[in-house]
Amino acid sequence: MKVAALQMVSGPDIAANLACARTLLEQAAQAGAELAALPEYFNGMGLDERDKLAHAEAFGDGPVQQFLARAARELSLWIVGGTLPLASPEADRVHNSSLAFDPDGRCVARYDKIHLFRLDNGSEQFDEARTVAAGHQPAHFDLRARDGHAWRVGLSVCYDLRFPELYRQHARAGCDLLLVPSAFTHTTGQAHWEVLLRARAIENLACVLAPAQGGLHANGRRTWGHSLAVDAWGELLAQRAEDGAGLVLAQLDAARVQSARARLPALAHRVL
């Protein structure tokens, strides 16, 4: 199955962000991808962290969800919409949510980011919990590829990557593809991005697809980018080296996943 990780440098102009996303989705479809995944906050990274509150949508309706459903339907793509802000019961917070759409434009899965990023290294300060309400449940969906293989796809977002227990739950649920839409900071991405993604692939004997924000944003934040795909043996299949919008294409081999799990049945050796 051919998949695409879409890289963006989203800003505060939602219409411009969606236009960029649509162009990348069209490129993915033209290249033969069956699944295209957008990065975290693909629809907008505001000038202030509270800007996302004004753009929150009710689950099931809203312009960004309509955009994703329409693109999936018109391009005959499975699309995972990175993340977008969805309304939460708390008036001053939103959920940072990843939504999956099938080629008929139906939303087949929703995942609300569980682990909320916080960093203070003296020069950079982030605290996602100020504007985001944490999710509580893992989520996955089943995707039948054109060759007939049924992939089980586990959802996660960015900072979740540092918590392997979430991915082990996905492995226990039978997931063989893990998605990690992200907006890693340049600082943490440079240090840990690739090694963490390859580790999650290796320890769960699952493919990993990680679309990312990558570049300098209007709010002054610099994200790491390097969107990539990794196979179940931890081999780097494709990676975007440069900043800016673009896509990474990779061919995932279900037989190679099954072979890796047969050669090294570590998932069957779990004790804890």
Features:
single chain, 272 residues, alpha+beta, Nitrilase/N-carbamoyl-D-aminoacid amidohydrolase, seven-stranded mixed sheet, six-stranded mixed sheet, 17 strands
Describe this structure as you would to a colleague.
- With 272 residues, the protein is an alpha+beta fold.
- The protein has a single domain, classed as Carbon-nitrogen hydrolase (Nitrilase/N-carbamoyl-D-aminoacid amidohydrolase, 4-Layer Sandwich), CATH 3.60.110.10.
- Strands 1, 2, 3, 4, 5, 6 and 17 form a 7-stranded mixed sheet that branches. A 6-stranded mixed sheet has the order 9-10-11-12-15-16, covered by helices on one side. Strands 7-8 form a two-stranded antiparallel sheet.
- Strand 9 and strand 10 form a beta hairpin.
- Helix 1 runs parallel beside helix 3.
- The longest helix is centred in the C-terminal third of the chain and has 19 residues.
- The chain is globular.
Low-confidence stretches: none
CATH architecture: 4-Layer Sandwich
Classify the beta-strand content into a percent band: 25-35%
What's the total helix number? 6
Approximate helicity band: 25-40%
What average pLDDT do the residues reach? 97
End-to-end gap: 33 Å
Q: Judging from the principal axes of the Cα atoms, what is the shape?
A: globular
What kind of sheet is the major sheet? 7 strands, mixed
CATH topology tier name: Nitrilase/N-carbamoyl-D-aminoacid amidohydrolase
Helix and strand content put the structural class at alpha+beta
* CATH superfamily caption: Carbon-nitrogen hydrolase
Q: Order of SSEs, N→C?
A: EHEHHEEEEEEEEHEHEEEEEEH
Counted beta strands: 17
For this structure, what is the CATH class? Alpha Beta
